[in-house]
Amino acid sequence: MGLQIIGIIVAAVLMFIFGGIWYSPGLFAHAWSRETGITEHKPTPKSMLRFSAVLLVLLLLSAAILACILTSWLPGHHWRHGLAVGFLGGVLAAAVVGMNTLFERKSLKLFLINAGYYLVGFCLMGVIVALF
Known about the structure:
By secondary structure, the protein is mainly α. 82% of the residues lie in helices and 0% in strands. It has helices at residues 2-22, 29-36, 45-73, 79-104, 108-131. Helix 1 (2-22) crosses helix 3, helix 1 (2-22) runs antiparallel to helix 5 and helix 2 (29-36) crosses helix 5 (108-131).
C-alpha cells in the first residue's frame, strides 16, 4: 500500500507538471486563452499558491481513483493495465469536458485542447500508478 501512495503522489505531481507544459505559451496557452476569452493576467503569489494547492489536491484525487480502478478492475501491475485504465479515465474526462463545452457554447478547438490534456495526462497517470 505504501508504494501505491507514492505512485499516486508521483502521478499527480507529474500530471501537474504536464499541465504546465500543455498550457504553456510554447503549446496551447495562446489558443486556450483566445478560445476561452480569458486574457492573460498576473496573479498574486497568494492566489497562485491557492490555485496550485487546489489543483494538486484534485490531481491527487484523480490519481487515487485511477489506482482504485486499476487494482479492482485489472489485476497485476503492468504499464499496459495502467494505460488502459488511464485511457478510460481520459475518455470519461473528455466526455465531461465535451458536455461542458456544449453547454457553454465553446469551440471545438477549446474542446480538443482541454480533452487532449485529460486524455494524454490520465494515460500518463495510469501508467505511473501501475508501475508502483
